[in-house]
Fold this sequence. Notes:
Order of helices and strands of chain B: HEHEHEHHEHEHEHHEEEEHEHHE
Oligomer: heterodimer
Number of helices of chain A: 20
Largest sheet of chain A: 7 strands, mixed
Radius of gyration of chain B: 22 Å
Structural class of chain A: alpha/beta
Structural class of chain B: alpha/beta
Number of helices of chain B: 12
Shape of chain B: globular
Strand order of the largest sheet of chain A: 11-10-12-13-15-14-21
Number of domains of chain B: 2
Helix content of chain A: 25-40%
Distance between the termini of chain A: 54 Å
Shape of chain A: globular
Amino acid sequence: MLTTKKNLKTTNAITVRFAGDSGDGMQLAGDQFTDTAAAMGNDFATLPDFPAEIRAPAGTLPGVSSFQIQFSESIIFTPGDQADVLVAMNPAALKVNIPNVKKGGLIIVNESAFTEMALRKATWQGNPLEDQTLRDFQVLKVPLSELTKNALKDQPLKLTEVERCKNFFALGMLFWLYNRSMEHTLNWVQKKFAKRPELAAGNVTAIKAGYNFADITETLPVQYEIKKAQLESGVYRKITGNQALAIGLVTAASLANKTLLYGSYPITPASDILHYLSSYKHYGVKTFQAEDEIAACGVALGASFGGQIGVTGTSGPGICLKAEMMNLAVMAELPLIVIDVQRGGPSTGMPTKTEQTDLLQVLYGRNGESPICVLAPKTPADCFTMAVEAVRLAMKYMTPVVLLSEGNLANGAEPWKLPVLEDLPKIEVKHPTASNAPFMPYLRDPQTLARPWAVPGTPGLEHRIGGLSKADVSGNVSYDPENNQKMIRLRAEKIRRIVQDIPELTVEGPQSGDLLVLGWGGSYGPVFQAVSNLSDEGTRVSQAHLSHLNPFPKNLESILSKFKKILVPELNMGHLLVLLRSQFPGHTFVGYHKVQGQPFKSAELMEEIKRHL
Amino acid sequence: MSAENLVPKVEGKVPFTKEDFESGQEVRWCPGCGDYAILAVMQRTLAKFSIPRENYVFISGIGCSSRFPYYMNNYGFHTIHGRAPTIASGLRCVNPNLVVWVITGDGDALSIGGNHLIHAMRRNLNINIVLVNNRIYGLTKGQYSPTSEMGKVTKSSPLGSIDQPINPLSIALASEATFVARTVDSDPKHMGYVFERAMQHKGTSFIEIYQNCIIFNDKAFVPVTGRENRDDRAVYLEHEKPLIYGKARDRAIRIKGLKPEVVELAKGEAARDDLLIHNEREEDPSYAYLLSHFTYPELPVPLGVLRAVQRPVYDELLDQQVEEAIKRKSKGSIKDLVYGAETWTVA
């Protein structure tokens, strides 16, 4: 490695964005950059942003795949609003991503890809590298494809294989720019291509060539250093929301001493949960790839009926199909976990993009009076905690629980401070056994109103349940008018009583004042960043965040009453907003809505907050 | 049937009584409904096996026959329209000790639940599916069903149905079902035999029962399976025996090219050696498919076990994968799962 005499500056946080064709290996380069940030002790958050098409036509705007990471010396909660550095592998990637780069930021373009044809495909009029289009940015034109080809000219690789190494050339350049260690990625390459040593050698050469090129080129005069972040002490790993959910479910099953059966039908962006769980068979996990969303929910409910943990996972369109089965679980009063990784809608919508548009669907999208418990994780790592919480509540209250994740939580990664396993409370489950009294399947626990969970195979407790209206206590089919209303009230009251089992809402910042920003789910990070930035500037504003959407924490109203106005930012057109307005009239709520398939940026929230002060 | 013995049937003495399997709930089918006979035969059949009643689970969808679980003194789940096989599958996957019965109808299984039915059978889960076929929608008061004949005049088809009916047995065979049988509500003895065979079969058992809906489709099956007709118009299948039928047992089936034909034995139309011999263990489903399309008046309608073959069972394979993964990687602990990745420590 050459030693550099260039300037080394330290900086607090950097946002990098890789962008290219969906076959250019941008997600892979981003993952490696992220792993290195983790290995070097930075805090980080990532935002993979890719098209629904597996290989959209090369060089077109819809085919652009991007990966953004913010890594930092201080604690951060978002993948960054705009990038300090954009790597654009072709004219389409440049065109799509210019709005995602800070003014004055650095754009590294693969000059080799800026051919006339490629420019036309990306609908450029003229060549942005030669006109004034990029005048607000520093531009570094690098013939990435040619340089990679030159670096690998003596290696026994096919031309297509050489071409695929250019993402690592770019990665090498960024490693130099941010004074990163290459060790993690070099080890990864050796492991990944253990059976193809020539590919391993090619990728190693490409990454080192990129590193050295950045070192000697005169257009990169400064190298930046981002020190270790002062995270809370503990053991950490990098985690995405989907993996955290999978691990959380297995952990919950273990805490409850139950078998986990996960029924699912592949759907973006939830499929990875199925992939992870099906690789966890040696933990005793059973997975069932069903014929459709309905069956996936049915097998999960069948497992719960059988006394184990039934979980199904999907995205919004799948929830439409599961609604009937979720309603049966409400009526039969069986535990069931339904994971909804929300994506852009309605209908097929934008499968790979993020939204928070299923809240009202999961609360109200079923026939009849059908109260259901709804939870929402706030960060990728929080998906672990909320998965355990969902299982705990479902079993204790004999109810389906919906876990509302989001596309950007599912695929986004952050450091996860690993729980001390011994501290996780056991999930106590009691199944009845026969006594002298006849068994009453709907005789409720006086405190939780949960009915007994009698497992088929238990002698003396033979009973029948179903979707028909049933008599209180005995559970026999009943069309008695008064009884029907009583049962509807009891099921609603049971869900309300979950409030006794969930934490109270807390306020970050001043405990009273003019403005509270109240969010839910994945908006936590950007809201936190916006509120803390404004607080640093001396603005008086507070944040509270709902992880429990039904029931709400019991002190919600008392917190609302301490603020003159409550701003509710959501990636929808006002779902939480209508709930709050109807349940807590007399408070002033304003919504802030975004449905562009992208998470909130802190900057837009800061502006919105200021408008209300 | 020695190869496929799954559950022990006690020979000689009957371990339980029919009453042991009666839930005591008032049965609310129409007087004269064929479901009464099916219920009684099921209760009598279960009494013959040394399996305690808590180990049976009856799961149904929606329709007249789907009320069945309420009347059985076992565990029961009256679920939603067409979805019973999914719940039965999930249950079976977490508990191998239960004997799971799915009770369904022609609308429930073949219309709204068609998808679940075929997938349950291709997976070959260890469950028994009873399809009560009356060729009509009873609970919704008389619309045509997917098994109603073309031209059927009903409330929703006043000018006659224009839907081609489907054949439950053919659907089962196309779905690679390993046990496929047909019986009739008016022949309790034969029904009992078929139920016993289904209990003893490992894998999904599919049984079609011709059932009479006295209100909306009365006597639909009488021309074929009525007591006075069935000897001449149906053929009872027996493994390794020729397909001989008729009151005088004077008719049989012979295959000519790809086509079955009726031969009159008395007239000496065929030698014994030329007759079609039933083989329920034939791996190739083409033979059973051919049988499934025997229709009166051209051919006698087959009753009995069309197909009974062995194939790996989904729930057992699922358990095996778990066991093998544990053997290969050793049983995972939560500590491995949570901490077993690249980690770093912040002091």
